[in-house]
Amino acid sequence: MNQKFYDILRLLSIEEYQTAHSLAKKLSLSEKTVRTRLKQLKIILGDYGAELIIKKHYGYRLLVCDAQKFVQITPTLNTENLPETMEERQQFLLRLILEADDYIKLDDLSQQLFFSRNTISATIKRVEEIINSYDLSIERRPNYGIRLVGSEFNIRTCIVNNLSDDTDKLLKDWVIQVILKGNHLSQVEMSEIALESFVSYVIVCISRVKSEHKIALGYLGQQEISFATQKIIDGYADQIESHLGVCLDGNERRFLAIHFSSKLSSDSYSQYGPNFVISSKIDELVYKMLRRVEETFSVNFGNNLELRMSLNQHMVPMDIRLRYNIPNRNPLLEDIKQEYPYPYTLAIAACLCLQDYYHRVIPEDEVAYIALIFALATEKRNRIIEKKNIILVCVSGKSSSQLFKFKYKQAFGNTSTPFITVQ
User: Fold this and answer.
1) What angle do CA 321, 327, 330 make, to 5 degrees?
2) How far apart are CA 272 and CA 225, in angstroms?
3) 140: which strand partners?
4) Residue 257 · residue 228 · CB < 8 Å
5) Do 285 and 353 meet the contact criterion of CB atoms below 8 Å apart?
6) pTM for the whole thing?
7) Start-end of H helices in 302-363
8) Other beta carbons within 10 Å of 142
9) Nearest to residue 159, comparing CAs of 189, 130, 195, 120?
C-alpha cells in the first residue's frame, strides 16, 4: 500500500469520528485531496478485514473486523499494537512505559493504536495508579511526552508483579532447575510460590541487564545479606554468566540476594539469614504487635513464647519485603479471611504497629500470613492434640502448613502415628 494511504490510516480512530477537514489540517493537504484518498482507502481496507465507516456531519471512523488480516496491511503493525479491551490497553501501555528508554508521545500512541487521545489518557491514569504503588511516577513534559521516573529496583518489582510472563520456556525451565538443584544442595527450604516468584526476579534481572538497565551503584545495602546467602547467590550468578554470557556485577548479585532472602522459609532463615540472631528491632516490633492486640482485644499473648518466636522468625524476611516494597502473594488470602475471621482481625490490629514503623500500608497478603500464626496460637490454647497418620503437602509456606497440620490433628482424633509435613 502506498505511503499516502498509511499517513491517513494512522490518523483514523476506531472509537471517534474525524472530519475530512480535521484530517486535512493534520496532513497539511486540501479537503478534496483527503476525501479522494479516503475513497481509495475504503476500497483497499476491504481486502484487509477492515471498513471505513462514514457518518454524515460526523466524519470517518475505522472499523477492524478481522485483526489477523488487518495486521497484514503493513509490516509496522502487529497484533500487539491492537489491544481491544480496557485491560489489554492497560497491559500494553504498562509494558510500554516500563520498558521505554525515552519519552513517549500520546499522539504517537493514539495513531499507533487507533484510539483517541482521550482514551489513551484515561488508560494512562489507570496505569499510573499501578505504577505509583511501587514508588514510581510518570513525568509529563510539554512537547516531549511522558516517561517513567524511579529506581531500577522498583521498576523490576513492578514488572514481575504486573506484566504477563512471556519468557522463553526453555530459559525458564533451565533457571528453575539451577535453583532447585542449588537449594537442595544447600538444604534451603522455599515454598513453591516463593520459588516461582524468585525465578521471575532472576529472569527479569537477566532481561534488564541484557538491555543495559542495571541497578544503580550504592542503591542496595549489604546488611540484609548473610555470607551464606551471598555464597548461594554467587553460585547461581556464576552459572548464569557461564550459560547465558550475561555479566552480573555486585549490585545485581545483591539484588538477587535480597529477593532470595525475602522468600526463605523460617527454617531456612535460621541457617542462611543474617546470623539469625533476632535483632532487637524485630523483637521490639513483635512485642509492640502483641501489646496492640492486648490493648485492643484484651487478649494477652505475652507469655506465649512459641507465638512470639514464630512472629519473630516470620518478621525477619517480612522486614526485607516491607522495606523494599516486595509483594508476597498469598493464595489462601480469601480462605483465611473467611475461615479465620477472628485471627485475621487480631492480625490487622497487630499490623497497625508495622504500618506506623514502615510508613506504608501493610498488604492484605502479609496480614493473612500473620493471621495464620495467630490462628495457630488461638487454636492451641489449652488443648492437647494427638499425632495423626497424615502426609500434608503445602505450597504456601511454613505458617499455613503448621496451621493445617494442627487442624487435621484436631479433626481425626487419637492416634500415635507420626504426622509428616512436606513443603
Assistant:
1) 110
2) 9
3) 146
4) no
5) yes
6) 0.72
7) 305-323, 333-339, 341-358
8) 5
9) 130
